[in-house]
Specification:
The chain is α/β, with parallel strands linked by helices. The protein is built from 21 helices and 12 strands. α2 packs antiparallel against α4. The structure holds adenosine-5'-triphosphate (ATP). Belongs to the ABC transporter superfamily.
Amino acid sequence: MKLIALIGRTPRSTRVGIVVQLLLQLAAGGCAALAIATLAVPAWTDGAQSIGTGLLVILAPIAVLGLIGMRIVASAVAGRIGMPAAFAATTVLRRALLRHVVDVPLDVFSRWSSARLGMIATDQVRKVEIAFSFAVGELVSCWATTGLLLALCCALSWRIGAAALLGVGLYALTSWLSDRLIARAFAALQPATNEAARRIEEHLQGLATIRAHGALPLRESALTTVIGRLRDIMVAHSLRLSGAVRSGAATIDIAVFAGFAWAASQAESAAALTAAGCAAVLAIGANRALARSAAYLALLRLGESAAAEIGEFLAAPPLTCQPPAAIPDRFDIAFDGVTLAYDGRSNAALRGLDFKVPAGQVTAIVGPSGAGKSSILALVARHREASAGTITIGGVDIRRIPAEALAQFVTFVEQEPFLFNRPLGDNVRLGRPEARQHELDALARDVGLDEVVAGLDKGWDSIVGEAGGTLSGGERQRVAIARAALKDSPIVLLDEATSSLDADMEALVRTALARRFAGRTVLIVTHRMSIAAQADHIVVLADGRLVGAGTHEVLLAADGLYAKLCEAEQRSAGWRLGAGRAGPSSASARR
Ligand SMILES: Nc1ncnc2c1ncn2[C@@H]1O[C@H](COP(=O)(O)OP(=O)(O)OP(=O)(O)O)[C@@H](O)[C@H]1O
């Protein structure tokens, strides 16, 4: 997306504000040029003979001060109008970004890391903000000063004017050539910045693991390499940029001096010589304004490249709701020939799955690690899109269910739930903000969260830290279960949702879940066969394929993978880690 295209997305009032800002900056640039041009008054007035030196000495400073004052006022008013307009434009952009983050399928985030998206929403939008609120206006002002001074210079001495214009032409040519050089360093700048941000974020997130494995020197040296690469690219970019600006300014200065020498050699009177001198002063003034504009042009380019990266993310296709949209009125789920292939994997995670999940019952999904159990839940919640086949809820293809409706129908409790750095109560109320306090208290008692609340200084009002970091894994899971129960949706997806709870707590939570989720369509992913055995219906997966489905008794009798998994669980229940090697505990050996 180009900056100009971005303006097109903003409300009319914002566009008007930006145009008014540009017009005012144009006027400010004109005032600056006229202030400089007063230095050339002797040339217009026959060496001041026509108006008298005394009058000139009084009038010129007044004119200069007046013009400078007008310039300051025009610039200030431009800022007051332009800045709110620019901030309004980037607010539109930030909203569009946040909306889009919700609208795209989750696999988009394997290409756009959270560090990169964070940079886009903050740093890149800020660059667009700077481009609109400041750089573009100042650029117009500088170019207005340059243009007007060059025009006046041409009027005073066509020779110097021609030389200066030739210098400007050469400047434009060298800028164009050096731009191509700079563009190469510039193109590498953003990916290197993104990579450094991603590595730093990863370093911070993985700090405990890095310490636990004594890997600090290794990780630090990797980080230093990435940061060093970024430094090298930045230095190369800045050197090329400033080199281009300096050489461009020098080209025009040389052309002006050559033009002055030419004009002076042709001057036949003192007045002609004065005019040549004044024209040269105007041309040098024009050159200074042009040189100043290079910095604003660079800021504009940064804004342009930021807008391009923002546009690239906004172009990622959102999850669409296929017409005609439909809302299911029952909540059985059916998989029909569903295949899921993740990017970068040669084997599909799920292959041609056909099975049904009855409405209002509990269905367990079991299978070895990596069999594709969690992927099934991700498909139902539409966190992922199936590569082939159809998933229906109540007979309606989920691609036809509007995203907001699906989010209302389906609650997903992950193994490692995310908590917001907000009060505990707010985290539980996430799905139903209007829930009453007594509902929360009753729920807390049901799922064993009451003892957690009691142990916190401010009870429900305690802030749980970044990603819920002040709570244990089991406590976070109880919070996630409580908020799922409070939301009370017709479909509930539980992905190893009680895996961090001890046996007593798990029994308590399971009893509560059975009561709270009675009559809901519940899909449970679990490794514990004792949990799966209690489900109404069980789906068995291996290597992305369906290898069994039915009740516990039916699957045991079939003596397939399910029976083996049950047997393995029973065996491992009696095993312990001994001082020397693993072996059956004495209790198990007795059995
Ligand atoms: N985001 C992803 N990108 C690429 N491959 C993935 C992704 N998520 C899962 N996979 C792969 O898909 C396959 C199925 O993964 P899935 O998490 O669904 O299995 P699972 O049965 O839930 O495993 P576990 O019991 O270990 O949690 C695995 O081979 C896994 O490596």
